[in-house]
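The authors assume throughout that readers already know how a fold can be written as discrete tokens. The format is easy to grasp once an entry is in front of the reader. For illustration, here is how one protein appears when written out as sequence plus structure tokens:
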Amino acid sequence: MGRKPCSKMAAVLGLFTVCSLLPSFLVSTLAQSNGTLFSPSSSSVEGCTCDLTGNGCDVNCCCDVDCSAKDQEAFTECKDEDLNRDDRVCVSSALLFAYRRDTQFRTETTGTGLFCIIRDNYESRNFYNDVQTASTEEEFSNLKSQAASVVYDYVDEKVDQASSSVSSYKVGDPVLLIFDSGARGFLSLPKPLFGNECDDNNPAGYREDESTECTRTITELASECETSPVLNAKSYYQGFKVAKVFSSSSLSVLNTSSSTNISNSSVGSSDLLNVTVAEPLLCQTSLGIPNTCPFAVPPNPTYDTQNNRCDNIALEVSYNVQYSNSSTDIVAVMVEFVLGSVTSERGLDLNQKVSVSFSKAGATDVTFRRSGNPGYIVGEPLVAGRLVTVDEKDAIFLSSDRNTWLTIISPSVDGSCSNSSERTSVTFGVDMRTGCTISLPLDLRASQCELIQEVAFNTILGDQPTYVASFGNSDVNSVGDWVKILNSRPANEAVQGERQCRNMRLGLHIEVLFAYFGFLAKPQPRIVGVLFKYDDTRDIQYQCTGAQCQPGSRSPEQQVEVVTSVGFVDVSDKPIEQVKPRPTFEAKASSDFFFPFF
């Protein structure tokens, strides 16, 4: 097997070289001014376009001189086979034959085949014209002017300071910040990037309320507690100001440089706002319950080396941006904090919540958010109220607090039912299950089981409404648009036994039936039935564990879970897809239509 000519590599490097090992040259490279000459015909060795491996056989490359006869026996096709240059050339399939049994040919028939080309006397039209390499700028420009494709040139776009330097905020525009160092930035709203890790490169959009929750990875709590800006509440309102108006010049400066002096911006000091801290500050206890902090200004985080604890870190940050009643200008920015402590000997993953809300300055909160218009939206609370009579006319009393409509149990931090006022809203289309625990004492006495059953009923039901709105926008004065809750509360049948309570009901399941109506392209769900279904009765046996069973225990108690659940059932009557029958052709003709034949 012969060696490959080295002139191919020499042509690539652009060097003058002589290969004394080869008896002849197939491709000649004379100097940098002369290019390598290739034949357009694929039948020549120089034009073997599929020969890509030097001194090696390329699979299915029949013109590769490095391929032996044994190699070619394994080929399934020839990549270098001549293409039919013109489908209109007359080719008879009887004339096609293979000089190797593995060679494949293909013929194409175009048109009717009435006319075809027997001899092509203008072969050059089948090949690209040779383009010489540009060696001067003039030749380069001439070649470029012949191109049909678009070339994107760099253009330095300058902002018109007079017309677009300052404009109104538009919905979705980033809220601009001017830092004391002169840098421009945006009001950041950290979001989960990969997994739950926080990514701060997410500006908050103007008049777009949003709340995010993500994880901050703290590698060394001892060193980062007092130095990391993400833990310090002051970094969320100090060291920068908020621009009242949207500045295009500030935006362009931000994209090009972060160290421009503030005096170069069209935003003056009178157009900047400080961020104020709303009172009261909340501090989270070890049980996760927020209480009023003993200070009015957020302090710097401090590290307790004895307990490996970092105090006064920002766990929750809530911005409230107020805009003008007569324009889109921002007039005030306030921030609320929930501070707390974390303990770790080394690093930890800190869960942090950040939110931003927008409100109109001086406006009273009289807006009412619907749960749909008309049909319910998934995730919105079920509208529910009570039937009342006003001036001898029935109506629905609906609370302005949408979180108090139809609710289920919301357990306390320790899982108990002690805080019965805190409840979770039932939202449309979301199946839920919640529960909490009540205590069963060891020394059960007379009527205690009935009392425990009554506590369970009150915990399950709370202050429940009696009607649920059929539509997400039902009018309180149209009682016909409201569905009565089917609630047949069972009697208290609890009976006390030997350290047990019999016939106890500790669960409630709320079944909501809904159906779609309207267009199939945009269906609107409405509620057609609500049922409170209580669990079957069961017996509760007191069973203590561990040291609580020993004599001297102060008040051994058994924890019993009370649960509520919600399920939504689709009972839509879907239309049947049917093909309408063909219309009948009713032909009518006069009585003498066939005269004189009949």
